[in-house]
Amino acid sequence: MPLSIIPAGRSNSFLESLLEAAVTGAEEKQSLDTVVLDVSALNESLDAYVVCVGRTDRQVRAIADEVERLVELAGCGKPLRVEGLSAGEWVALDYGDVIVHVFDELARDYYDLEHLWSTAPATRRSVQR
């Protein structure tokens, strides 16, 4: 199912492939409450955030690993930077135009990125917590 967060009139198959691979990777490892936030109109240097939740530190790392694997398989390359993988509370995968955030439940609630970017269009893809 293609994501519909790309602004009208702006076709970017690379971005669409990256987002689809990231969301699929998260869902394949049973992430909770996966959301894609289109921040392109609010941030000049970034198009989207993918935000999802893992129940345990082990699941957070597994989700991040699967996202990284599928994004690379989709031909979108490796992340420019990965932060937080060893702790497993919040992993950030930076792909330049897209940042994937994989939180545990406490960190997701604390940082509340959806509230911070509340004016950004959001596309939800998986079950709620």
Q: Terminal Cα separation, in Å?
A: 22 Å
Rg, Cα atoms, Å:
13 Å
Largest sheet: 6 strands, mixed
CATH class call: Alpha Beta
How do the SSEs run, as a string of H and E?
HEEHEEEHHE
Please count the beta strands (DSSP E, at least 2 residues each): 6
Total domains:
1
**CATH fold name:** Beta Polymerase, domain 2
Name the shape in a single word.
globular
- Structural class of the secondary structure composition? alpha+beta
Can you tell me the CATH superfamily? Beta Polymerase, domain 2
Q: Report the CATH architecture.
A: 2-Layer Sandwich
Strand order in space, largest sheet: 3-4-5-2-1-6
Give the DSSP E fraction (strand runs of 2 or more residues). Answer: 15-25%
Overall pLDDT metric: 88
Question: What is the number of helical segments per DSSP (H or I, 4+ residues)?
Answer: 4
- Portion of residues within helices: 25-40%
**Low-confidence stretches at least 5 residues in length (pLDDT < 50)?**
none
Write the layout of secondary structure elements.
Blueprint: H1 13-28, E1 32-38, E2 48-54, H2 57-73, E3 81-83, E4 90-94, E5 98-104, H3 105-111, H4 113-116, E6 122-124
Parallel strand pairs: 2-5
Antiparallel strand pairs: 1-2, 1-6, 3-4, 4-5
In short:
The protein has 129 residues and is α+β, with helices and mostly antiparallel strands. It is 34% helix and 25% strand. The chain has helices spanning 13-28, 57-73, 105-111, 113-116; strands at 32-38, 48-54, 81-83, 90-94, 98-104, 122-124.
